[in-house]
Amino acid sequence: MGDVLAGFHAAWEFDSDSVLIRYERGIRTPKLFQVLGERRIPLEAVAGVTLAPGRRGTVVLRIEPRPGADPLMEAAAGQLKDGSDPYRLVLPAERETLAEYYADELRALLTESGPAERHLVSAPGTPLHFKAYDGRASFDGESVSFRWSWTGASSAKWKAGDQTFPVGELCGVEWRSPEVFEGHLRLLHRDEPASSPQADQDPAAVVFGLGYGPVHESLPFAAAVLAAARTTAPVPAVASAAVRRDPADIADRIRHLGELHRAGLVTDEEFSVKKAELLAEL
Questions:
Q1: Contact call for residues 113 and 49 (beta carbons, < 8 A)
Q2: Which CATH class is domain 128-238?
Q3: pLDDT 10s per residue in the chain (282 long)?
Q4: By CB distance 3.0 to 4.6 Å, which of 80, 158, 202, 216 could disulfide with 32?
Q5: Which helix (H) or strand (E) holds 249?
Q6: Residue 161's closest CA among 69, 254, 37, 43?
Q7: What is the pTM of this model?
Q8: Element (H, E) at 268
């Protein structure tokens, strides 16, 4: 086809085997779109195309991705608001006839349906990081790290210490939007137990809220981890070399551990064991 259809906040470029979606960079453009930049959607990842009336004199052209084809939408699990849906193209109502033409052209090219056996749309690139309410999350493409904050992390997370998870040990993610109650990102292990503790007590989860873990930062992160976990073989257990930490950082952590101990949140035994672990990292 080779044509371009421009709407509000995005433009779609139609090729014979894919649709390239380019998102605008502007103050009115949803932040998630700005972070995504552009996305190529192979036609084999598309289940259908719809055209429906929008709000305030607009029409909405939407690609319906196949379940499991896009790690971003799989991680989102239906929690995205319409305004942040990367598969919607909003157009002025007077362009409805043109939009219908492209919808028909796309439908004629579709050959696949049903759930996809693998991700067909590329995940966001790495490295990625964002600040959650109780810590900082980072992902380098091979492992996810959670570094707990002084003010937000629970005593359970401080007792467990900072965490690093090779993607080979993960089978997926659980993302709960910060725009709803109890938003969080939880990493799911291949040997995950039947039930997990609350996110604020789980060292494999970071908590959102109060401006922390916004959708445009935490969702691409979740999608990238999900895609990597699905394509990485399990990592065999091997002895890892000790990692040396900054002495000043260790001192700060021991000081905070002492505060938890004095407040009665850490027992004498837990304080002694964790202090010894921290000193061993020097």
A1: no
A2: mainly beta
A3: 579 999 999 999 999 999 999 999 988 999 999 999 999 999 999 999 999 999 999 999 999 999 999 999 999 999 999 999 999 999 999 999 999 999 999 999 999 999 999 999 999 999 999 999 999 999 999 999 999 998 899 999 999 999 999 999 999 999 999 987 789 999 999 876 667 789 999 999 999 988 999 999 999 999 999 999 999 866 454 433 444 556 766 776 777 777 777 777 667 777 777 777 777 766
A4: 216
A5: helix 247-262
A6: 254
A7: 0.83
A8: helix 268-280
